[in-house]
Design goal:
With 221 residues, this protein is an alpha/beta fold. Helices cover 48% and strands 13% of the residues. The chain contains ten helices and five strands; from the N terminus they run βαβαβαβαβαααααα. A five-stranded parallel sheet has the order 2-1-3-4-5, with helices on both faces. Helix 4 packs across helix 6 and helix 7 packs across helix 10. The relative contact order is 0.11.
Length: 221
């Protein structure tokens, strides 16, 4: 299967470099380019994409707002977003992940790391570990909103699924969760898949964000 990619960056040389790297791969193809977030939305209205490689800081509409609008659609209808930036700041990472991005990388990563990240995101996983997401959310919890509000989607979860979501939100891996609740790792993987499906989430990172926003997990807790 070929992964269709849209590149969003306000620098033409950066877009050209990314296109050269991506088009050299037999399983990746660039189907569109955009100069800012607003242009990205227009491009995505014309082409079908699996992954959007998104710069954060751009004129007109930045990458965070564009990511938020892209990820507002139905999970099965929207592309996944991999955010890249030259700025190594936790605030950028936090804003991108809260907006719905499935990954966050610096632009100076080696080409092979960028290619691997695109493939991981395209397969429905996340590039940023949930444990890192939790540290980010602990640090920036005050920006999540005026206070926790129970998400009605959580009522769809069984008691065991709610327990596993809580452990995912604490940054535990499937193997660690399996040891904690005394079940097989494959069983945990099945539960996580069901949780993501019921909550209409793309990956574990977004599950961590939802757990914080709904008050299921509290900063430092």
């Amino acid at each position: 299967m070929t992964v269709r990619v849209v590149i969003v960056d306000d620098q033409a040389l950066v877009r050209a470099g990314f296109r050269m790297v991506l088009d050299s791969q037999p399983d990746l193809t660039v189907v569109g380019e955009a100069v800012d977030g607003a242009d990205a939305l227009r491009v995505l209205g014309r082409v079908e994409a699996d992954v959007v490689v998104m710069d954060v800081r751009m004129p007109t509409m930045d990458g965070v707002e564009a990511t938020r609008r892209i990820c507002a659609g139905r999970p099965g209808d929207r592309p996944r977003v991999l955010v890249l930036t030259t700025f190594d700041t936790e605030a950028d990472a936090f804003a991108a992940l809260q907006a719905g991005a499935s990954g966050f990388l610096l632009k100076n990563v080696p080409p092979e790391e960028l290619l691997a990240a695109i493939r991981v995101v395209a397969e429905g996983d996340s590039v940023v570990a949930p444990s890192i997401t939790r540290r980010l959310l602990d640090r920036f919890a005050g920006q999540l909103g005026p206070g926790p509000a129970a998400d009605p989607r959580l009522t769809q979860l069984t008691e065991r699924e709610r327990e596993i979501l809580l452990l995912v939100a604490q940054g535990l891996s499937n193997a660690e969760i399996a040891a904690r609740v005394h079940v097989a790792e494959a069983t945990v993987k099945t539960h996580v898949g069901r949780i993501l499906a019921k909550l209409r989430l793309r990956d574990r990172v977004q599950a961590v964000v939802l757990a914080y926003e709904s008050g299921l997990v509290t900063p430092g807790g």
